[in-house]
Structure formats: C-alpha cells, structure tokens
Specification:
There is one protein chain. By secondary structure, the protein is α/β, with parallel strands linked by helices. The chain has one domain: HAD superfamily/HAD-like (Rossmann fold), CATH 3.40.50. The protein has six helices and five strands; from the N terminus they run ααβαβαβαββα. The strands form two sheets. It has a three-stranded parallel β-sheet with strand order 3-4-5, sandwiched between helices. α3 links the parallel β1 and β2. It starts with a helix and ends with a helix.
C-alpha cells in the first residue's frame, strides 16, 4: 500500500528534520508574550509527536490536531476544535501556513491567515485565499508578528 511505504520512508528520515533558522527564538518570543500556540497538521499523531520531539519542539505548543484525529484540511474542523479547546474565537485566531490547504482551512473556519512562501506550495497561489501577509523568510514572519499580533 502506498501509504504504508510513505510512512516507512518518512519515519526512516524523521531524525533528519531541521528547523528554519530563527524559528525557535520566534516561538519562544510568542510564548513569552502569552500567546497560545497550536498545530493543525496533515501529519498523523505519531508523525507529529516524533517531529516535535526530534526538532526540540516538545512542550512549546499548547495543543494540536492531526489528520488521523479529525477531518483533514481544508475542512475547518481542526481549527474549530482547537478554538473550542482554548475558548478562542475565530476573530482572535491566526493560521500560519505554507500550503493553500492551510489558508483555505483558515478561510473556511472564519480565521485570518498568514502564508509563508518557503514551504510546500507556490506563494502566487495564496492571493486568492486572502492571507493578511505572505512572509518570504522567518525574519519577515517574525517582524510581521511583532507588529501585528
């Protein structure tokens, strides 16, 4: 089965995951400012847990939802569940994503979004999904978040 082969190869290189420069300080700054940080991902629970442990991110995020726990993107259920869990309304929720699926999920959930162009999808496809901003590197994202969140 294709899915089984994908998981086999993904978990074989899981330890090689690295973060973009500046991500850890940016997340630490957001946490220090008292913001709730969550993850809504297409990964499985096992995949996310291993990625967070491998990338030294364990404990940074307040909550998460994975594709094997709830409806997948762009269905808004992941965001709706996280907003309900932390009692945060859509108008106070910001989805940061690197795919059109992320930005469409935010739109479907009634949330604002920010796109990052250094991820999976081409940023020229983001405009139709009305992100507040598209960051082309971590420094731009960090600067925008400091000024707007």
């Amino acid at each position: 089965m294709l899915g089984d082969r994908y998981r086999h190869h993904y978990f074989a290189i899981q330890h090689e995951i690295s973060l973009f420069d500046g991500i850890l300080p940016m997340l630490a700054d957001l946490k220090a400012r008292g913001l709730l940080l969550t993850v809504a991902t297409g990964k499985s629970r096992r995949g996310l847990d291993e990625a967070l442990a491998t990338a030294a991110l364990a404990g940074i995020f307040d909550g998460s939802r994975t594709a094997d726990q709830t409806a997948g993107k762009p269905d808004p259920l992941m965001l709706h569940e996280l907003m309900a869990e932390f009692d945060v309304p859509a108008e106070r929720t910001l989805m940061i994503g690197d795919t059109t699926h992320d930005l469409q999920m935010a739109l479907n959930a009634g949330c604002a979004s920010v796109g990052v162009s250094y991820g999976a999808h081409e940023p020229d496809t983001f405009a139709a999904l009305s992100p507040l901003f598209v960051a082309h590197d971590v420094a731009q994202l960090n600067d925008w978040l400091r000024l707007n969140v």
